[in-house]
Amino acid sequence: MGKFLAVSSAYLLICSGYQIFRVPFDPLIQYLIPFYIFLTAVFLLLYDLRLYPKPLRKLDKLSQTAVEFLVAVFLMENIILDFWIPLQDGTASVTYTLAEKLDEINYYEFYPLRIITEILETSIFNTCVIYILSIFFLLSCLHAIRAVDFRALDEGPSCFFSDIVYRSKRFMKKKFKTLGLQRKKRVKILETEDMVKKRKKSEKDVCNCNLIDNDIKLDNLSVQDYGLDDLDDLSFKFSDFDIPSETELLSGPL
């Protein structure tokens, strides 16, 4: 969760137009929506990568989040200034240069060539190329981080979209598990006849073991455990009782 907080904070900072390490590049951005699409691709890529070096000793969560935030801001600013802005400027210059080269040719004798030249000279064509490039980078990052798998298109569109749904559910379950919000599932085990017999036998063995343990405990009880001081207290003397003799029994009333 700390890594997501760091990278998303860096993403929002760049989207807001603030920079920390490099000069402001807002005037250099010609197309805003393709820029945000490309920046989203960079955000997904940085979120999937390890920003904090593994060999280094781990810090506490707050310090590590701060380090990852600074690393993410540094990488985003340099990727935009050193890659995206030269790419958009180079694309515009290539299209205009190509249009000029075709203009030097006597295209009036070849009508389709004249149409191509007029299309290349329009700003709409350059805008479409920039959009295509930004979407291409976004889809490439999604495929690289295994968010989507374009190889599933070989099986058909339904298989491709089913794979996207499956990967999205798996991603959400993983995040809920990380946050401790996952609900525990109750698993019902279907028992066969052999499993039922073994379970009953094991329960019976446990009961027998408990009875044997109780008998052993009773045998080990001492006289004091019964509240008696001596075994003589358990002996009975016949002299203590008035037992009639045989003559008295015979002469007694029937």
TrEMBL record:
The chain crosses the membrane at residues 27-47, 67-87, 124-145. Keywords: Membrane, Transmembrane, Transmembrane helix. It comes from Diabrotica virgifera virgifera (western corn rootworm). This is Uncharacterized protein LOC114324601. The keyword Transmembrane applies. The keyword Membrane applies. InterPro entries: DUF4818 (IPR032145). Pfam families: DUF4818 (PF16089).
